Amino acid sequence: MRKILLAYDGTPEADIALDRAAELAKALTASVGVVSVVPFHPGRIGIDPWDDTTVHTEELLKARERLTGLGITPELHRPVGDPAAEIERLAEEHGYDTIVVGARDLGALARVLQGSVSEHVATHAHATVVIAR
Length: 133
Fold this sequence. Notes:
Layout: E1 3-7, H1 12-28, E2 31-35, E3 38-39, H2 53-69, E4 75-77, E5 80-81, H3 83-94, E6 98-102, H4 108-114, H5 117-124, E7 128-132
Parallel strand pairs: 1-2, 1-6, 2-4, 3-5, 6-7
Helix pairs in contact: 3-5
């Protein structure tokens, strides 16, 4: 584990993932990248005005502040697209060997309607995936 990618969306679950990523990075002297994906949905309104670039920039700044306070200087990424696919693509393109994501306990219906980003990343990424709970 030399390069860790933290998927961060500002939720309490993402804060737990941030703590685990920081612990791993310190123990292994690994570098850290943080990604907050602006979701894009094909159709008339591609980006949700309540979940737009500004929101994700604020999330990244929050994560950077917390990590910097722990002595870690992260690289920040803010792609637009399908969150799971963008996390996987970014990890591959930038050589991240580990991805840390938080897990929300979605019910069966929510998982069918929304999909689980952590589940998709865990089963499709070409990196080690840590799902923090």
